[in-house]
Design brief:
The chain has 351 residues and is an alpha/beta fold. The protein has two domains: 114 residues, 3-Layer(aba) Sandwich (Oxidized Rhodanese, domain 1); 212 residues, Rossmann fold (3-Layer(aba) Sandwich). The chain has 14 helices and twelve strands. It has a five-stranded parallel β-sheet. A hairpin with a 2-residue loop joins β9 and β10. α5 crosses α8 and α6 packs across α14. It is elongated and about 70 Å long.
């Protein structure tokens, strides 16, 4: 067999392919961005090998596991890798850069490809993610978009990105809109590790001499927790407030959350989470509207009785520079108005 060669984190960008040799379940929890999953053991096979190791020892586990690995590698060579060119240069990793990725690299190099094993595996990459967040976040020039619920902050953030501004879309990374109704039906949130990988990847691409726009967030977005260093940075950053009229906010919410009218069971379930924060009579009225698909009166009361009081209590206490914020006032939040808002925000103007 050819000698296994090692790659480092900084070598990943030059790889033709990044191969995750772990199980599909491990891959789903988190993986290096751009990696493809070519497991040398399936989830069930890994459990069998682990059980054998505990019951019969290392030799028997390796004997059984070796046959499984060989079969899976043969399948990958026949299918996933069969059209790769002679000069293909993949980097392979597993959990710690051990037997699983090492076995694949040995076979790929035996074929003639310049395959390398990622030193330290996913475990080292995970350390890289944490270190990136811890070291880069304090150097970023954040500008925080604030505004009451329905102010189209996320849409303005997207419009800023479209005009070439640097943005960090935390709700996009968390796949959640950040409120009690923020869960997106049919789209599960990523794991905490996957969220942090997405954030670290975005941070690594920033020009630290330029401003990065981000939306004001609480400590958690759905079930995802913001890293403390990031939360502290947002709370200390200068703020720009989008001050939209109540009518504009309601119209925007009815467009942005229109899908809730088609998934009334989900909406009812989310409203139930507000029990104890509102009276039983209020919750019953909201649930009745939800069951009827009557979003306009529901959203009007949610904003007036829940979201606006929550915003008034939390924002001033959480964001140190909110008292000196720049305000951008608008009576319209349609698509064209949002683009215009982004232009005003980027130019540093108030209205």
């Amino acid at each position: 067999m050819s000698e296994t060669r090692h790659a480092q984190i900084e070598d990943l960008a030059a790889a033709d392919t990044i191969i995750d040799a772990r199980t599909p379940a491990e891959f789903a929890l988190d993986h290096i961005p751009g990696a493809i999953n070519c497991p040398v053991l399936s989830d069930d096979e890994r459990r069998i090998v682990g059980t054998t190791y505990k019951q019969a020892g290392a030799f028997e586990a390796r004997r059984i596991g070796g046959a499984m690995v060989a079969a899976n590698l043969a399948d990958h060579l026949r299918t996933r890798f069969h059209e790769r060119p002679r000069d293909w240069r993949p980097v392979v990793y597993c959990w710690r850069g051990g037997l699983r990725s090492g076995s694949m690299v040995q076979w790929l190099r035996l074929v003639g490809w310049d395959a390398r094993q990622l030193g330290g595996g996913y475990k080292r990459f995970r350390r890289h993610v944490i270190d990136t967040i811890d070291t880069v976040v304090p150097r970023v020039k954040f500008r925080v978009l604030c505004g009451a619920t329905g102010s189209a902050k996320t849409r303005v953030l997207h419009a800023l990105a479209a005009r070439g501004e640097q943005t960090l879309d935390l709700e996009g990374a968390a796949e959640h809109k950040g409120s009690v109704l923020g869960g997106i039906p049919g789209i599960p949130q990523p794991t905490q590790k996957r969220f942090e990988t997405r954030v670290a990847t975005r941070l690594a691409g920033f020009d630290l001499d330029r401003v990065v726009w981000v939306e004001a967030e609480s400590r958690k977005i759905g079930r995802i927790a913001l890293p403390t260093v990031l939360l502290d940075a947002l709370r200390a950053a200068p703020c720009v407030e989008i001050a939209a009229s109540p009518s504009a906010r309601l119209a925007f919410l009815l467009r942005d959350y229109a899908y809730l009218g088609d998934d009334r069971a989900h909406l009812v379930g989310q409203l139930g989470l507000l029990r104890g924060l509102q009276s039983n009579e209020t919750i019953a009225r909201w649930i009745e509207w939800a069951q009827q698909g009557a979003l306009e009166p529901l959203f009007q009361e949610l904003v007036a009785l829940h979201y606006d009081p929550l915003y008034a209590r939390s924002q001033g206490a959480s964001f140190a520079q909110l008292p000196g914020r720049r305000r951008v006032v608008t009576d319209d939040l349609d698509d064209a108005a949002i683009v215009a808002l982004a232009d005003v925000v980027a130019r540093g103007e108030s209205t």
